[in-house]
Amino acid sequence: MAGQLDKRKIGGLEVSCMGLGLMGMTAFYATNPVPTEECVATIKEALASGVTLFDTAELYNAGKSTDNNEQLLGEAIQGLPRDQVVIATKWGIYINEKGEFITDGSRKHCREAVEKSLQYLDPNTPIEESMQAMKELVEEGKIRHIGLSEVSPEDVRKAHAIHPVTAYQLEWSLWSRDAEVGWLVVQKGGSAGGFLTGAIRSPADLSEQDFRRVGQPRFAEEAFAKNMELVERMTAVAQRKGATASQLALAWVLAQGPDVVPIPGTRRIKYLKENLGAAAIQLTPEDLQELNGIFSHDKVVGERYPEPMMRLTFHYSKHEQKQS
């Protein structure tokens, strides 16, 4: 791979300081769909630019048994030495062929999901059962490390008692700061679903089928205008730094510490290059203080997801624990 990016450590893994999130290539973002060929080209450009970490999930397959997210990644990396690529995938929530969201953290489904992932390249289940199954898969050499996504501190302790947990994935951005608890983080949502890029100017810019428009309260009509005021203030800071709003948002994430690895997602090469440019932006303590002030907790309007989905997230479980 010709490109070079600084490296960061995730447990025993060394990965590029920024990864590539693949969710939007096949799921949830219905606005301006992109052909599969263009998505594959974007992944290959990321590889050529030095990106070594790619994030996918069985959920991103969106109920399709063919032409899905994990297969798309498999096509793009075909022929590459496997030691050049780190694939992070997730299981436990998926969409069935009827379009229904299914939560299943059982040992049986764990093995099925991992086996399917290899071929392509639920709150009711105790996390101990899920971890035991993943521990067995590590011992069998089918996965290298175990990470958790959107988990509570209590579940982390239970999981770690069975097998060391390498990383935790949750949204960490200027307007979602629940990750500030001292964990090693694989960060998602640095541009907040595109809101912090400034490219989305109103809910009408999104397709009526786009998950952000129908399923994310911060994009709703009543919250959008107030949140856009924060983005305008951030954009002024970005212009002062000679950066785009998206680059500034990602530079803020990178500045949170060497144990944070952002995985911004995009379907297009031009935005990939823009995102990777964030690695060259240096923020001063004064810059960080200013940005933290713009996006203080009391100024962001709306939650990340509707209440039923928030119940599955780190945010909900963390605040529930505080109240108990």
From TrEMBL:
<dbReference type="InterPro" id="IPR050791">
    <property type="entry name" value="Aldo-Keto_reductase"/>
</dbReference>
<dbReference type="InterPro" id="IPR023210">
    <property type="entry name" value="NADP_OxRdtase_dom"/>
</dbReference>
<dbReference type="InterPro" id="IPR036812">
    <property type="entry name" value="NAD(P)_OxRdtase_dom_sf"/>
</dbReference>
<feature type="domain" description="NADP-dependent oxidoreductase">
    <location>
        <begin position="18"/>
        <end position="293"/>
    </location>
</feature>
<keyword id="KW-0560">Oxidoreductase</keyword>
<protein>
    <submittedName>
        <fullName>Aldo keto reductase</fullName>
    </submittedName>
</protein>
<dbReference type="InterPro" id="IPR020471">
    <property type="entry name" value="AKR"/>
</dbReference>
<dbReference type="GO" id="GO:0005737">
    <property type="term" value="C:cytoplasm"/>
</dbReference>
<dbReference type="GO" id="GO:0016491">
    <property type="term" value="F:oxidoreductase activity"/>
</dbReference>
<dbReference type="Pfam" id="PF00248">
    <property type="entry name" value="Aldo_ket_red"/>
</dbReference>
